[in-house]
Amino acid sequence: MNFFKSKAGSLLIVIHLFLIFSCGTIKPEKPIEQVIENPPVLAPITTEIVVPIEMSLTSYLTQANAKIPKFTRGSDKPCSGIRYDYEFQKDSFNIRTSNNKLLSELHGSYWIKMEYCASCTDLLSSKPICISPIIPFSCGIKEDKPQIRIRLSTELGISENYSLQTKTSIDELKSLNPCEVTLFRFDATEEVIKEVRKTLKKQCEETDKQLETISFQKDAKDLWKNMNQTIQIPYLGFIHFEPLSLALVKPRLENNKLYTTLVLNSRTYLNQNSTKPVSTELPPLKILAKAPKDTFELFTDFELNYDSLSTLFSEQITGKKLDFKKNHIEFNSARISGLDQNKILLTIQFSGTKNGILYLQGTPTFNNESKILELSNLTYDLKTKSVLLKSASWLFSDRIYTELEKATKLDLTSQFNDLKKGIDKNLQRKSGDFSLLGKTHDIRVIAIFPTINFLYLRTCLKAQLTVKQ
Question: How far is it, in rounded angstroms, from Cα 154 to Cα 214?
Fold first, then answer.
């Protein structure tokens, strides 16, 4: 009988202790983690890489002018009427630009010797001879020569074969002080101008010939070849440039110089693969009205490991205590994992008046100004709420939410600064005759994707990319 009393007493003690410890332990059922395996696939973007081109046109026009003789001579000697000899001389040659045209201005002078025969006959010889007194007259001999001003204009474009396309025409051919013989109502200047016009047409042709030797095909081929490349970026992977098309901006003229821009349209993407397709053929040229901006955007996923994040969060929360009127809680560790609907599951182990596990859900957010990653809008999971309502309603405290949100803030400033420096360093390189000059202006997180193994920060890198010769 005493044996049974002893056994019964021991059983009551065990049951009592079990009830004490079971009442002090909180172990809600863990939420089912329905989460995506990978973030949405990043689509390649098109990047416009610009190469400014500047060249002086003075030498081309000067050479065209030099190929046309300085002197233009001619004569017309009928038997009767007015006979003349003339000589036109180019005195000066200047070039300027206006309204996106190349303007050549020449100043010249001339002399003309004339004589007048009223009547001729061929009765006295095999050739007609003047039978009336010959009246001589002249302009520009032993006196100031009459002046002529000439203005040529050249319009420029780009042909499909990457060469300059021009059209030069005579805008003005004007006598500044005409030579007129009032006695015979004869405009000697007009005769000279007719002959000079023929010479100027040749000069227009020569000007176009000289300018059309300018070709951008070699620049285009070199750019196409040298920008078909892959650049390794530490910790991110490889930026690939796949040229798609080439364009030249319609030329702009200023201060006797031609300005245009070679524009390479490239398929640009970042991945972990070091190889990519190679494009070899130079495509047909496109013409653009204006140059695009030399900036581009590149999208990539910044991968954060849950284990590493959990360790950092645990370091910030472990040992933190919160006292309430009759209760207290001490946080022992923190762990995060992915949930559906872009949520994060925060698992907290704790001790104190109660001990056990708490499951909370939060939304990962990133502040692009402060570069801080945090879990916001933390709330208990539904199953955890159900358990707490029955056994520990005091744990529904804003102080707990606030403390956990503080502990799950992570400053990524140094990581983003290192990323920016790494990109900038690798976007400075020389390839053939071209120098690639890249600089990152901004890196912003545009979306966050919790997956099974990683938390992905989808980032947009805004950079300036210029290629110089």
Answer: 14
Reading the chain (469 residues) residue by residue, the pLDDT tens digits are 443 344 445 544 444 444 444 457 889 999 887 888 888 888 778 888 888 888 999 999 899 988 888 998 989 889 998 889 999 999 999 999 999 999 999 999 999 998 999 999 888 788 889 999 998 888 899 899 999 999 999 999 888 888 899 999 999 999 998 887 666 667 778 888 888 999 999 999 999 999 999 998 888 888 888 888 888 877 677 888 888 889 999 999 999 999 998 888 888 877 777 777 776 677 888 888 888 877 778 888 888 899 999 999 999 999 999 999 889 999 999 999 999 889 999 999 999 999 999 999 999 999 999 999 999 999 999 999 999 998 899 999 999 999 999 999 999 998 888 888 888 887 777 766 667 777 888 889 999 999 998 999 998 888 877 777 6
Task: Give the pTM.
Answer: 0.64
- Cα torsion 434, 439, 445, 450: sign: positive
* Residue recorded with tokens 């002018």: 65
Q: Which of 304, 437, 343 is nearest to 33 (CA)?
A: 343
Cα–Cα distance measured from residue 333 to residue 353, given in angstroms and rounded to the nearest whole number: 17
Cα distances from 394 to residues 26, 362, 381, 400, in angstroms, run 13, 20, 16, 10
Token reading at 69:
């003789």
Give the orientation angle of helix 398-407 with respect to helix 306-317, to 10 degrees.
120
Under DSSP, the state recorded for 159 is -
Count, in order, helices (H) and strands (E) of the chain. Answer: 8, 27
Which of these, 243, 269, 296, lies nearest to 437 by C-alpha position? Answer: 296
* Three-state secondary-structure class, residue 340: coil
Q: Choose among 154, 285, 161, 249: nearest CA to 210.
A: 154
Extents of the domains making up the chain: 57-211
Question: Whole-angstrom Cα distance, residue 349 to residue 354?
Answer: 11
What are φ and ψ of residue 99, in 5° steps? 50, 40
- CA angle, 456 as apex, 425 and 465 as ends, to 5°? 30
Helix or strand run (H / E) with residue 445: strand 434-450
